[in-house]
């Protein structure tokens, strides 16, 4: 057995990471892709460690398994596909949703399944699963930089595995007793001080190494959902699906104040002071959309001075709107996502709407903000409209 690297007293999470990464490289245990620094490290014997998952009851009973896309977990993805289980892999950095479901072609050979388990195969043989994909995950497999025999885990520091798990809780995709497994080299099993753990950190129930299977019997509770006051605006912008979850949870009455909002509130002169920009935007949106004749464009012979005479309004298409959704719900979502249109053309019977923005940049920003938005059980299709019309179209006259 390789001895784990000794850690200095009072070591931080980053100290632990650096020690493990350095040790894997220096001892010749690191495997492609190299260097292993700033990654979930791949290691010699990772496939052997992955194969031992087939001996676990929790694997054999599971029908739907979520496995991270990291290279050292490739063997687990292959084992899941070979056992004809549903394999879910998070999208890279959660940019395009939460999961991709890997769907091997019918009659796939062993070689095709092997390709499906790789990063290239994930791109070629996957279909996205939205927020309302009704995923029911029976087993979660995550990568780690370091883990303790007590089940305390340290990732590479970006927080994606913790966030993915919290999002799955919010979606109802995992339960409190859904097992979590990690695959590491023996030298990555180290003592981790409990004070390094935060309440959003994911713990693990099983650790698989090339030489042993460790059942941690960890009693520390796993995250109970997204801890919004630890989420920044920056993270919200990077992960579109996070916006949809926040909107959904806000509708149920949960406090979804972000990290930045809490500090803004603490610095405000008056308790509960509202963001003036947000209030102004909400007022303008209510005026603009409230006065719209739903289902009809409001046209005029002269362009609004606000458009600077260019007339280059850009239209955004919103499709896949369920029949149950009302225009008021879309208005509410647009307010929430700061995607204020100059005008709204609602075509509920055709399950679509068109949003007019003052220029292409504003329209593209709105598309980015609304990506992944889910209403009434459907993930909406949001894109720039294919046919842009700019003759005689103006903003609703809400500027007094």
From TrEMBL:
Which Gene3D superfamilies does the entry link to?
A: 3.30.70.330, NagB/RpiA/CoA transferase-like
Kindly give the PROSITE patterns that the UniProt entry links to this protein: RRM
Q: Which InterPro entries match?
A: FTHF_cligase, FTHF_cligase-like_sf, MTHFSD_RRM, NagB/RpiA_transferase-like, Nucleotide-bd_a/b_plait_sf, RBD_domain_sf, RRM_dom
Keyword DNA repair attributed: no
Q: Which Pfam families match?
A: 5-FTHF_cyc-lig, RRM_1
Keyword terms of this UniProt record: RNA-binding
Q: Does the keyword Cell wall biogenesis/degradation apply?
A: no
Source domain of life is: Eukaryota
A Gene Ontology molecular function term of the record: RNA binding
Residues forming the RRM domain are 314-387
- Might you report a single GO cellular component term? cytoplasm
Concerning PANTHER family, the annotation shows: 5-FORMYLTETRAHYDROFOLATE CYCLO-LIGASE-RELATED (PTHR13017), METHENYLTETRAHYDROFOLATE SYNTHASE DOMAIN-CONTAINING PROTEIN (PTHR13017:SF0)
The protein's name in its UniProt record: Methenyltetrahydrofolate synthase domain-containing protein
From which source organism is this entry? Answer: Glareola pratincola (Collared pratincole)
What lineage does the source organism belong to?
Eukaryota, Metazoa, Chordata, Craniata, Vertebrata
């Amino acid at each position: 057995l390789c001895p784990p690297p000794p850690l200095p007293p009072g070591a931080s999470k980053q100290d632990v990471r650096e020690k493990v990464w350095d040790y894997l490289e220096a001892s010749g245990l690191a495997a492609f892709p190299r260097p292993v620094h700033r990654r979930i490290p791949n290691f010699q014997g990772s496939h052997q460690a992955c194969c031992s998952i087939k001996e676990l009851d929790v694997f054999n009973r599971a029908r739907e398994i979520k496995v991270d896309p990291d290279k050292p977990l490739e063997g687990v993805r292959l084992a899941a596909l070979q056992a004809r289980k549903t394999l879910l892999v998070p999208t890279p950095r959660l940019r395009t949703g939460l999961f991709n479901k890997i769907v091997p072609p019918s009659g796939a050979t062993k070689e095709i399944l092997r390709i499906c388990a790789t990063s290239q195969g994930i791109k070629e043989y996957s279909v996205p699963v939205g927020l309302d994909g009704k995923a029911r995950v029976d087993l979660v497999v995550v990568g780690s930089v370091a883990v303790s025999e007590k089940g305390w885990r340290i990732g590479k520091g970006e927080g994606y595995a913790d966030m993915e798990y919290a999002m799955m809780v919010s979606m109802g995709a995992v339960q409190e007793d859904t097992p979590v497994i990690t695959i590491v080299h023996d030298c990555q099993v180290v003592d981790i001080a409990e004070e390094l753990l935060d309440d959003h950190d994911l713990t693990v129930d099983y650790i698989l190494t090339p030489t042993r299977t460790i059942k941690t019997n960890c009693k520390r509770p796993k995250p109970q959902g997204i801890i919004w006051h630890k989420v920044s605006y920056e993270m919200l912008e990077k992960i579109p699906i996070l916006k949809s979850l926040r909107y959904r949870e806000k509708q149920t009455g949960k406090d979804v104040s972000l990290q930045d909002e809490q500090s803004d509130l603490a610095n405000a002169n008056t308790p509960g002071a509202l963001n003036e920009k947000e209030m102004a935007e909400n007022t303008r949106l209510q005026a603009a959309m409230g006065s719209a004749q739903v289902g009809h464009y409001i046209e005029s012979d002269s362009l609004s001075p606000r458009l600077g005479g260019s007339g280059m309004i850009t239209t955004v298409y919103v499709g896949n709107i369920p029949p149950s959704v009302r225009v008021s719900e879309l208005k509410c979502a647009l307010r929430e996502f700061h995607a204020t249109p100059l005008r709204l053309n609602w075509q509920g019977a055709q399950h679509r709407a068109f949003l007019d923005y003052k220029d292409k940049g504003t329209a593209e920003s709105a598309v980015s903000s609304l990506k992944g938005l889910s209403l009434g059980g459907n993930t909406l299709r949001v894109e720039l409209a294919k046919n842009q019309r700019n003759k005689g179209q103006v903003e609703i006259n809400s500027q007094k």
